[in-house]
Every structure is written in C-alpha cells, then in structure tokens.
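Lab manual, section 2.4: Encoding a predicted structure.

Procedure: take the sequence of the chain (412 residues), apply the prediction step described in section 2.3, and record the output as structure tokens. A sample record is shown.
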Amino acid sequence: MSGIEDGSDLPHIGVGHQLSPPLPWYRKRWILWTSVLLLLLLGVIVLVVLHENSAKAAAAKVALSRTKPTVTVTISTALKGDIGVYLDAIGTVTPVYTSSLTAQAGGVLTSVHYREGQLVQKGEALIDIDQRPYQAQLMQAEGALEHDTNVLAQARMDLDRYRAAWAQNGIQKQLLDDQEKIVLQDQGTVKNDQGTVSYDQVQLSYCKITSPITGRIGLRLVDPGNVLQSDGTTVLAVITQMQPTTVIFTMAEDSVQQVQARMRKLHTLPVEAWDRAQTTKIASGKLETIDNQIDTTTGTVKLRALFENKDGVLYPNQFVNTRLLVNTLEGVTLVPTAAVQHNGQVAFLYVIENGKASVRNIKTGVAESGMTAVEGINPGEVVATSSFDKLQAGSKIVVSKRAASSVEGNTP
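Recorded output:
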C-alpha cells in the first residue's frame, strides 16, 4: 500500500514525453476519401492503358487483314476456237432387223447347227426337221404331174389326128370340138399338178431352217428330238443384226425446227453414244431420220441414229446417252469451265495481270468437254483455275509449276 501511495509504480513522465491526443473525426474521413480517390484514379489509368492496347491490337489486325497474302494458283489461257452445241438424250440400241424363227413345217427336229451367241450369215443352215414325210408327198405330186402330162400329150396327138381327118371330111365337127376341150381340161389338170409339186417343194424347204439375215443368234430354245408344230407360235431362235445398228432417242418438240433446218442444210448430223455415267464415248454415228409425229403425252419426238458398230460395242436394247450435234459456234472465246465462278446470278473470272488477280464479270454460253464459251474476256488473257477460296481482287499471284498449263489443243 505504501508503494501505491508514494507513486513508485507509476510511469515516469518527463518533460517532452507527453501522450498524443487522438485524431479528430473529420481528419479520419479526409484520409479515407483520399484513399478512395487514389484507387479510382489508379483504376481509370489501368482502363485507359488497356483500351489503348486493345485499340492498337485492333488496328494491327485491320492492317493485317488489309494486307492481301500471296496465293499459289494454277492458270490457263483463254483461246479463240469452235465449240459444238449438243442435244443430250437417253436412247435405246435398236437393231435394224430382228428375226424370230418359227417352224412352218411340223415334224421331229433332227439337228441344230448353230452355237449359242454365234454370228451367223444370211442363208446359213440353223435347224433341220425330219423331211421324209414331205419328200414322200413331193414324190406323189411329181408322179401325178408326170401322168397327167402324158395324158395331155396323148390328147394333143388325138387332136392333131382329128384336125387332119376333119380337113378331109373324115369325121364330124363335134368330135373335133370335143377333143379340143379335152386338151384344155388336161392342161388344167397338169397346171394343178404343177402347183401341188411347187407347194410340196416349199414344204420340203421348210425342213431346213436357214438364217434370213446376218447377225448374232441368241440362246438355243429347242433341242434335237423335239416335235415341232407348224402353227408358227413356238420361237426356235432369235437373230439380231449387229452391224450396222441404230439408236432410238427422243428430243423436245421445241428443238424439231432447229434439227430439221440443220438436216436440210447438211443432210445428216453427227450423233455420239456415251455410257451411263457419260464418261466414255462408246460409238459415233449419224442421224438417219426423224419420226413423222410428236407424242402428245410427252411433247417429244423420236429420232433414229445409225451406227456402223464394227466393234460390236452397242448391244441390242442397251441404254445409252446420246449427244446430237445441232450446231457449231465458230470463233468464240473459250476458257476452262473450272475457271468460271458464280456469285448468285453473276458469273466472273479471276484474271491474272502483272502478278495480281482482278475480278472480271462475264457472260457464259455453251459448255462442252471442259470448255465454256464466254463473253467479256479476250483471247490470250490468263485466268486462274484453282485456289478460289483464297483469291480476292488484288491478291498477289504465284503460278504453280505443278499444274500451270494452257488450254491450247483442248478446243473441241
């Protein structure tokens, strides 16, 4: 208690070491607002810096986008040449002749002389029918003819005697007249016998069936030992002419006048036969005729084209794609079809000039064999044929060494 009273435990406060009084409230608020303002200023500065950086990046991107890169392309040269105008249609190979052989004489089939699929000549023996019954009938008819011929000869001799006797008034006129009529009757009998002989000869010839045309024979439909009827309903063999052959196809009635005009001028028009995929030309022929009427249900008319078919590639009833050349455009500007680009209804080309690409609007015409007739470009100008996804007006061009080429020699 004495320690407390004498103050020995109290801190010693000397002169100059007095305690600082607490800050007033208004000074504390000033410091707080100052800090907030500094933070806001710092944030504004950061935002300004970021905005300037993004603006510079955008400007650099725009500048980069405006810088057109170098594009490697293949090129081709526009040429002046001729191009054909074709009418395309689907056709069917139709033989000029098709013969279905039937039996005209009944009997047992004794032999078959052909092989299936064989190329047979006109008049070549194909099938034999047992001819013995027909030979016997012919022999009977020949015997009757021989008998009646001698009867006629005897009647004529008697007529000569009656005429001599009548000239000497040795017989009555009635006897002479009767003998004259007997001779006429015997002549009729002989003529009838001759007809019977000819008929039997024809029947005998039916026993040997020959080819009526030159062509390819189909599969064998009968065998030796079969009994044939002369009703003409059973087909024994089918022969189709292979060389030459024809193709029948159709075209729209709107094209009839154009084709007829060209036919009157040229007398014939070239026709090509292509496979189903239209990738390979099978044969070349010429237009032979146009049908005499238009099918009102389809609005089309049939045409027949003749093909020599020396290699036999056209087969009867085969479906082919036909191409009829109806006109030839001469002296037009031709470019590869691959070079023609479209923007909606507008066709254009990338023309290469001084190592840069420029866009040229054109008007397209006939396309044939990878070439297109165009207007709006001159022969000799170079056009791009590839890299269209990268090309734009003003692009710098590098020509590809691998595929740089000209269309020279490719005109139809």
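Check your result against the sample. The first helix runs from residue 2 to 6.
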